[in-house]
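User: Teach me something about this protein's shape.
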Amino acid sequence: MLERIIVLTALEVEYNAVYHYLTELETDEHDSGTDFEIGTMPGCPWRVAMAELGPGNLGAAVVATQAIGRYSPRAVLMVGIAGSLVPDKVKQGDVVIGTKTYWYHSAKHDHERILARPDSWPSSHRLLQRAMTVVRRRPWGEAGFEVHRKPIASGEVVLNSAQTPLSLQLRSTYNDAVAIEMESAGLSKAAHAFKVDTLTIRGISDLADGHKHDADAAGWQKVAAENAATVARWLISNLDTTVTQISDYIGRPPPESLDRLRQRVDRFVTGVEEVSNEMGAMSLSMAATRLGELRDRILEDLTDVEKHLGPVEPEQDVTRRAALSSLRRDVRGIVGGLADAAVRAKAPTLPGRVSQLYSP
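Assistant: First, the predicted structure itself:
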């Protein structure tokens, strides 16, 4: 099973903007009923799992927890639209990559005062670094929008005025935030609890100035969502050398577990040959017992190897993960299908799969 990137959106317009880039789609229903659509982005050595969760931080936290628990992803991205808190600098159609997320509703109301008790979560350093590289290169060309790397304010309010108490509070207490939205605090809370890299990418659809209805009617939601999806698409395509839950090194010699795996696979192949020669003299249960313990040790080795392999180029990474998947499937299948000579004949191919796990 290839590793996954999770992309969460709140609204249909946001979902459709990212969905446009996916191919080879399949649907996976979580036990709770949440539907995840899983597809491939061109040039990516992993699958992208998406869900549309509706507005609000509570829903974002719940669905993010479901996705992380189900897929153990390399990264979780929130992609969608937001309002600008600094309309003179961050304009409609621009994209904001959140350096941190403020949960601005954390406060104490005392008579006529609002005493802020800020909570915040920094975005993943790895994702931000790669986002900075991608933005400098602008692989999307001259698309007519700017990309800003600034904090984002997240709460439970659709802000559509520059003069409300909330607007004043944001300008005084969260004055470095440039965009406001309703999901990233929930996502960040869940991702940090599970120690998963996370990042928010938001296109600006309105200026939070009392004219949101006009901006929406003019189609700015669609423009903002598509711009955010464009940046997310290129970021995902360039994650291979930055985000990894395996290791941060390149070119490190294969671990001892890889050599142990090779030796055990060689013994397994020899054992299958011996069983094949003696099939008339022993029962299938006896043959399976003889190879079963070695099969179990090989499966343990595969898990250990997967944890320690260093990252390589995307094409090589796809080959290695396919080899891991094939080894797991074939070792189990051979032991379970010893009565079939064609199944037993797969055994000599296993050492070749092991060789594909070595770093070049």
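Now, about its shape. The two ends are 22 Å apart (CA to CA). The chain has twelve helices and twelve strands. If you'd like, I can walk through any region in more detail.
User: That's plenty for now, thanks!
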